[in-house]
Design goal:
2 copies of one chain form a homodimer.
Chain A (H helix, E strand, L loop, with lengths): L9 H9 L4 H10 L5 H6 L7 H13 L3 E5 L7 E5 L1 H4 L2 H14 L4 H30 L11 H15 L1
Antiparallel strand pairs in A: 1-2
Chain A binds a DNA duplex through α3 and α4.
Chain lengths: 165, 165
DNA sequence: TCAAACTGCTTGCGATTTGCAACTGGTTGT
DNA sequence: ACAACCAGTTGCAAATCGCAAGCAGTTTGA
């Protein structure tokens, strides 16, 4: 990858890491689709990333400290990818991007419902979801639960539309 | 550009428009640096975009309805680029990206101060700044002013650090 | 008045990146 | 034993990127 940076501007530096067509989609799938294995990320995403690109992006996300990788104890060949705190804190970026796309681009109904909930929920909902991600990705102790989790609500909303069709 | 989209996901569609290393930097310069002419965008940015790439990106941003272009009445050859409402509403995306970069990447002090103010100011400050952008880019009527504008405050903070050095 | 500088781009071309397809070496389930 | 599955790797063609130079028209300054 590129070692030399074009400027010290935070937006530029962020773009040097995330400014391509795939990196944020991989993070999206890890966050919202709970995809943690290479194969899951490869085949269960809408857009169809190719394996060499996926391998390359996972490597740079590892290098940047946005994700980690560890061996799956139940399967010698599987690796489990997890978001770091740094990766989890990309949620607001994704949420704003989703809101903007939801408002201005020709999104499909079933894939837009998550954006709508995320947008309407605002920072409070994001914070709840980030706490849930810390539980599943960082192994943070589970807090008291009141009702369904944000992740479950996002998933339920998605399925309610898919089934209706 | 690519006409066929990979999926109807709002994050994916946003990335198909903005997911490269330059588009958001151009918008950043229009927003925070008030660069409105081709040459300004070409030469007065930190990162040094090349002219063919700039021309190409401006064209797609025009096609996407994120910016507009009109002739400069004071100079027959100059064009003036402006942000549309759709473009102005990318501010939260940039702000979140700047906050994340500010927190996790090795930014330079003078370029980080804007990110810090933007991050600390939160959605309230963003809304004020977006109103100012509507004034300068959309010609919206100027509202009552109480103290310096957000744009002026961002600029003053930047210069206070540059001069100190 | 006339040359120099500046305007928004465009063109040519080599270097890099992308993306498809096939393949590898190993593991797991039946 | 054998098929299916695992995380990637490799080869190669096509697309994109980015530097440098060029262009036609406009404005500026002596």
């Amino acid at each position: 990858m590129t070692d030399i940076s074009r400027s010290g501007c935070p937006i530029n530096l962020s773009l040097e890491v995330l400014g391509d067509k795939w990196s944020l989609l991989i993070i999206r799938d890890m966050m919202f689709g709970n995809r943690r294995h290479f194969r899951e990320l490869l085949t269960k995403s809408e857009e169809g990333i190719s394996s060499n690109i996926l391998a390359d992006r996972l490597k740079t996300l590892l290098d940047e400290g946005i994700i980690t990788r560890e061996d799956d104890p139940t399967h010698k060949q599987k690796g489990i990818y997890s978001l770091t705190e740094q990766g989890i804190e990309l949620l607001p970026v994704l949420a704003q991007m989703a809101s903007w796309g939801y408002k201005y681009l020709p999104i499909s109904e079933e894939l837009g419902i998550r954006a709508q909930l995320l947008s309407e929920g605002g920072p409070k909902l994001w914070a709840d979801f980030m706490d849930e991600l810390r539980e599943t990705h960082l192994g943070t102790k589970r807090r008291k639960r009141t009702g369904p989790s944000v992740g479950e609500r996002l998933q339920a909303a998605y399925e309610s539309i898919v089934k209706r069709k």
